[in-house]
């Protein structure tokens, strides 16, 4: 019954103009109760370039450049996260992003000396996050970063490169800590 109601909500909301859906998202943003998580999913389902099922978006999550973000299924994005899809963000299935994380898919350039740094072009820098990932709280993921499948990024880390599959990384910048044991002992 719950899935049916969510599908009906998504269908009804999807016919609204994009700016109205973004407005509704902003109205729903500060509330943490489960009903608001369901409503946020219904509102955002068609705002992203791609959006799977069973998405949980916590309160006060900010999205910029929605159409550059692709979400798989079973993704949770917890409170106070910031995602900017200007250069493209791809998030796979079964990904958990803890509170206060930032994912930036662009960066400011400073290649044109006749312009102030603020007025220099912004470079698009894609971010790819694989399947079965856990991103700890306060992690910053910068453009041109790739996190391969089944990885953990420890709290307060800065990701600015490629994270190997089946591994744990942490630190500033994020460094390899150890492999995730793939056998059952």
UniProtKB/TrEMBL annotation:
Its EC number is 2.3.1.-. It is an enzyme of class 2 (transferase). Gene3D superfamilies: Hexapeptide repeat proteins (2.160.10.10). The keyword Chloroplast does not apply. It holds the Pfam family Hexapep. Keywords: Acyltransferase, Membrane, Transferase, Transmembrane, Transmembrane helix. The chain crosses the membrane at residues 6-24. One of its GO terms (molecular function) is acyltransferase activity. InterPro entries: Hexapep, Hexapeptide_acetyltransf, Trimer_LpxA-like_sf. This is Acyltransferase. It comes from Cyclobacterium jeungdonense.
